[in-house]
Amino acid sequence: MALIGTDLEKAIALLNANQIVAIPTETVYGLAANALSEKAVLKVYEAKERPRFNPLIVHVANLNQLQGLVAEIPDTARAMMQAFWPGPLTLLLPKSKHIPDIITAGSPLVAVRIPRHPLAIALLEKLPFPLAAPSANPSGYVSPTSAQHVQDQLGEKIEYILNGGTCEVGLESTIVGFPNATDVRVYRLGGISVEDLSPYVKGELIVNMKAVQHPSAPGMLESHYSPTVKLIIGGPLPQNLEGVGALRFSTYHPDIPTDKQIILSRNGSLKEAAINLFAALRLLDSLQVKTVYGEYVPDYGLGKAINDRLRRASF
Ligand code: TXA
Ligand code: MG
Q1: Which of 63, 194, 263, 287 is 20 to 30 Å from the Cα of 203, by its Cα?
Q2: Which H or E run includes 75?
Q3: 244: Cβ below 6 Å to ligand 1?
Q4: Is 109 a pocket residue for ligand 1 (Cβ < 6 Å)?
């Protein structure tokens, strides 16, 4: 079992000793290590059982700490940093020579962001290095939005979980890249919506999360966030509702017992649905049903990212 607490000094000591520590961010909990130490970063891949070709996001406390990590910042990227950092937006930028290849899986681009969580910022401000941190879940499972979620799955593999409460966004960061001087490409939908980004894009805003099996380039694995129970999203319900549960946006399905249903937001708020989504996906396995029928949420704003995660969870 890992220790759960709010002891920054303990987290700092472990990270300085090339150990891994789970940390809170506003999106999901991350499994953090010294991004400049290949030895430390290897422990992250091992604990998550993550394929080495899947690169990691580098986290910093402020723009000063970003200096030296990236070789160049396009104007559009700079405008987005000003608008959305600290916050759930990750930018793909040309890496400097200080970023080890293991972080980017060999790509010349590094993913960077400033998280918006007071404990994460306080930690990063005190460290002499940036933190590489993927979501703190075993590869292919649902991302953790509380310290207990991390404990439940990785507690045996790590010493310390820095407890920052429940994540205020609940979805991972939006990942964007800059294919040329004017266009912007979204690689992963997340806590910053496409609508939020669009005023900052001079050229085309390309939303293309084309799934790949070996994402050596900007990457996403298609099946992800999967609960163990069979989840069907958006399909019609079967005639026989025995052994059937439901994952719903804001209202109960009238024909299924309420204790076999999970509601994402009773007042129909996409923001609240995002906060609750990953905890809900974890709960599906405890409904004691054979199949869960889920519905998509309204497909705008954060709803697009929620629907993306629902779709992936249903594979
Ligand atoms: O909200 C978040 O982004 C959380 C918190 C902890 O910051 N982190 C997170 O990390 O979700 P992870 O590793 O679970 O997802 C990061 C995604 C992966 O799909 C990875 O392939 C992609 O970012 N990625 C990371 N570095 C990349 C790079 N250099 N080029 C392309 N894609 C990259
Ligand atoms: Mg992840």
Answers
A1: 63
A2: helix 75-84
A3: no
A4: yes
For residue 238 the two structure tokens come to 């079967």
Which ligand has the shortest distance to the CA of 25? Answer: 1
Q: How would you write the pLDDT of the chain (315 residues) with one tens digit per residue?
A: 999 999 999 999 999 999 999 999 999 999 999 999 999 999 999 999 999 999 999 999 999 999 999 999 999 999 999 999 999 999 999 999 999 999 999 999 999 999 999 999 999 999 999 999 999 999 988 899 999 999 999 999 999 999 999 999 999 999 999 999 999 999 999 999 999 999 999 999 999 876 444 444 334 554 556 677 899 999 899 999 999 999 999 999 999 999 999 999 999 999 999 999 999 999 998 899 999 999 999 999 999 999 999 998 997
219 CB near ligand 1 (under 6 Å): yes
> Which residues contact residue 35 at a Cβ distance below 8 angstroms, ignoring those fewer than 6 apart?
41, 56, 58, 59, 99, 100, 103, 129, 130, 131, 132
Centre of ligand 2 from the C-alpha of residue 170, in Å: 12
Decide: 173 and 88 in contact? Cβ < 8 Å. Answer: yes
For ligand 1, say whether the CB of 25 is within 6 Å of any of its atoms. yes
Q: Are strands 160-162 and 109-113 parallel, antiparallel or unpaired?
A: unpaired
36 φ, ψ (degrees, to nearest 5): -95, 0
Q: Which atom of ligand 1 sits closest to the CA of residue 219?
A: 21
Long-range contacts of 195-204 (CB under 8 A, 24+ apart): 195/300, 195/301, 196/84, 197/80, 200/76, 200/79, 200/80, 200/83, 201/76, 202/76
pTM, two decimal places: 0.95
Looking at residue 292, what DSSP letter applies? E
Ligand 1 atom at minimum distance from 27 CA: 1
Per-residue tokens: 141: 């499972």
